[in-house]
Batch of 2 targets.
Target 1
Amino acid sequence: MATSFDFSGQHVCVTGASRGIGLAVAQAFAAAGAHVWVVAEDTSVVQAANEMTAATGARVQGLRCDVADQSAVQQAFEGIGTLDVLINNAGIELPTPVEESHSAIDDAFRRIMEVNVMGTWWVTRAAVPLMNSGGRILITSSIWGRTAVPGFAAYVASKHALIGLVRTLSQELGPRSIRVNAICPGWVRTEASLRSLAVMAQKRGISEEALTEEIAAGQSLEGLMEPADVAGLYLYLASESAANITGQAIPIDRGEVMA
């Protein structure tokens, strides 16, 4: 885990932080000395916060909140007070094949858009008034926000939408010196991505191991990343070292997609 950056005295909020990338990013900011709020819908977020406090000595607070619920988001952020860095990471990744007629596909499509897009919007709307000049907003998109794959229309569309949101917000908030960027991870070993990998392998009639090997072969650097492998990019973009970077969608994908 990258800990060379110092965020002592800074206030950071990470959504979708009970597991996966969000948890790794929150741990990295806590290790770097930040006061961290971790937000997630499931109850394990409070335990995650307590464990981070014990491991790092930083002040970490857990907030249970469904980011797709505007009133719940507003209520949760009322207790934060001030904010230097917002990490919009909460999201859902599920298959939504257009030719499958089951109504559950439409329900999944709607929920993905509500959480990934509207949830990011509600959280940002609640956080921006808490930010002073020099604030930073980072949004987790995906390498699929720059490309596409069959069978995941809602997820891909939502991640493309987030990049558009980043570009617009960077222009709107630039006069306040608030920087806004997207991070586009490639294949990371998370519960969600491994579930998607299994679906894709089954659709093609090959083993998950064979598909993993195929993915690795298509990268300049082989192998899937772990959540902690991407945390350093969040720290960098939130630091003064990235003071001139805004409105960008930056991939971290072991060379899977060349910008």
Target 2
Amino acid sequence: MPVSPPPGLEIRSAQPGDITSIVDLLASAPDDAALYQYPNLLDHPDALRPMHRAWVRELLQDPTSLTRIAVLDGNVVVGFSSWVRRAPNPDHPGILHRIKISEPLALDPEDGQDGSESPPSIEPDKTRAEAITRVRERLSHTSPFQSIPRYSLQGLAVHASHQGHGIGTLLVRWGLEQGAAEGVPVLTAGEARGVKLYTSKALGFQIVKGSEWWLDRDGQDITDQEAKEGGYSHWESIHGGVSGAQVVWAPPGLSLGIEGVIYRG
């Protein structure tokens, strides 16, 4: 049973001084896709810090991206989420574009530099990395939501020592409140652990039909029939595989009809 959020937890927009703490957080809580691509990542938790730092700096300087964080004691970042709002482009009818949802932050070159020694280099498993890229490209090209104005959750993480306290749920609910206020759905994607959180009773996302995917330990696609009939379980993490899906949340009173499937708020 989830534990109540710790006392004094604050949810707010990220600032330049939070970059190092966000990077610490991301290093502590790798997602299933990262663990799949980097089989030795848990032995080298700091190996991806340069990549995380560059990504976070880019997010904070992008006015079409909004980074929200959960903070304890005023400065300890224990949760992270990144949001994008897609709306019709007035210059190109029928096409969505990302609109401004934040004020870009002016960063100094030193912001986020923690003075630590260079982390050990670590290379992804090439076949697995190519498989994850293949899945994500397929979903981006075939998603039935490409023409629907929406909020998109681009990233979510909770510090390993603070998981199970409802922090991730609080971070996601911010986007649901925005979607409800504007009458637009929320879309995101994740691997098995993320999908379990999103589709929980506390959040109420629905899996997008046809978006589920499964990969075995060798980067080979598993068909939905093989996965759902239970005769082939090599996509499960205990066998070195990984799985995921897109999920959608619709605000109360809104129904989305997509390729014959109705998603009701």
